[in-house]
């Protein structure tokens, strides 16, 4: 009888241990790696009108900027001013406040944006 009790107790302990192992939570999968980000600078458009009295410019844009986006004014190969896009945005035109410098009609407007780096196969990471 004593051997039988030991066997029953042993089996009960083994069953509890096995059940405990089965109900353990799996650790969550690690998050995917964050893509590397790079700064990309490109020409947004050119200045077509200036209102010096009220301190804004009208730009003709290849790609419309976002409201609140900062931009740099370039004349030839030199930065000559800073703008802040405040709207309205009416394709292909955008209005921006002059923050710094004295932009002229014909000056190019460039922005810098942060984007995912491209992989060797040409796609984003």
Lateral arrangement of strands in the main beta sheet: 1-2-5-4-3-6
| Total count of strands | 6
Alpha-beta classification? alpha+beta
The biggest beta sheet is recorded as:
6 strands, antiparallel, barrel
Mean pLDDT level: 84
Range of strand content: over 45%
Give me the strand/helix succession. HEEEEEE
Overview of the molecule:
This protein is of the alpha+beta class and 125 residues long. The chain has a domain at 37-116: Beta Barrel (Thrombin, subunit H). 17% of the residues lie in helices and 46% in strands. It is built from 1 helix and 6 strands. Strands 1-2-5-4-3-6 form a 6-stranded antiparallel beta barrel. The longest helix has 21 residues, at 2-22. It starts with a helix and ends in a 9-residue tail after the last strand.
């Amino acid at each position: 009888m004593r051997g039988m009790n030991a066997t029953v107790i042993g089996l009960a302990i083994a069953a509890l241990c096995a059940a405990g192992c089965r109900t353990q939570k799996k650790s969550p999968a690690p998050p995917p790696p964050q893509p590397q980000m790079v700064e990309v600078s490109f020409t947004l458009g050119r200045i077509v009108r200036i209102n010096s009295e009220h301190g804004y410019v009208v730009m003709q844009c290849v790609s419309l900027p976002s409201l609140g986006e900062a931009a740099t004014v370039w004349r030839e190969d030199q930065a000559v001013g800073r703008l802040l896009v405040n709207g309205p945005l009416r394709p292909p035109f955008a209005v921006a406040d002059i923050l710094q410098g004295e932009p002229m009609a014909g000056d190019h407007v460039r922005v810098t944006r942060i984007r995912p780096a491209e992989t060797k196969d040409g796609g984003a990471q």
